[in-house]
Amino acid sequence: MALVHVTAVRNTLTDAVVDAIDVGAGSNGTLEFQTSGDVEVATLNFAATAFGAASGGTATAAAIADDTNATGGTIAKFVIKDADGSEVYRGTVTATSGGGDIELSSLAITAGDTVSLTSLTYSASA
Predict the structure, then answer these.
(1) What is the pTM of this model?
(2) Alpha carbons 25 and 16: distance in angstroms, whole number
């Protein structure tokens, strides 16, 4: 049987993870898209407070700034980093309907392209 967290615990877990993005003396936390070989393709900056408070075990990101001058490459994964550049969590990226943790309309990014997200959530497992 899989573990099941009650909603109050899911909210606590979610808030702990997303609040970790706001930690550090640097600027804001980032979402870095990478190739399968760990090479940065594009980096998007979170707002000073990256996510709102969790509800139902899920938190929604505040505004995420576009990367208007991407390095370029084929995106395979993402890494969320805190304001000091330390990893908080990572996940997979696929094309739309591909089942990745993040789904993008295109994974092939040309140098100089603009890369943006319309929404992002984090959820603790139920």
Answers:
(1) 0.93
(2) 18
